[in-house]
Amino acid sequence: MAKEFKISTLRLKELEQELFYLKTTREKEVAEQIKEARSFGDLSENSEYDEAKNEQAKLYGRIAEVENILAHAVIIDENEDAEGKIGLGCTIKVLDMETEEEEIYAIVGSQEANPMECRISDDSPFGRALLGHSVGEIVEVEAPIGTLRYKILSVER
Fold this sequence. Notes:
Elements lengths: L4 E3 L1 H30 L8 H25 L1 E3 L15 E6 L5 E7 L10 E3 L3 H6 L7 E6 L2 E11 L1
Parallel strand pairs: 1-2, 4-5
Antiparallel strand pairs: 3-4, 3-7, 6-7
């Protein structure tokens, strides 16, 4: 069974646009680079040709990757009400019990995760620990530095 990729409708549209760009514009650009590099002569010592072929391989790899994600995408229902429980598509506010600092995170699928923007994957240890919990609960997260404790202050869809 293939891995499912949990993504939002916005991310789905972004991936579809990227795939369209890669298959139309970018593919033509790379083909033109190869054509131009061939005109430089002997292919055995032609670094421009080698680079263009490497770029083509990267392009086809990315096209295959995006097609795989789209083929196995599961759209997150951001309107689904799970009675105040944390799930995909939720924005949560937590209190770090050790530092007494409030933090806000969005729980997203692995394809949309970006910890620098506080977008946490449901596959991460932190995301997995939070799933299914409600406001007021204290959640323990196992981390390399030890057990971290967070109190859930709010859950929004």
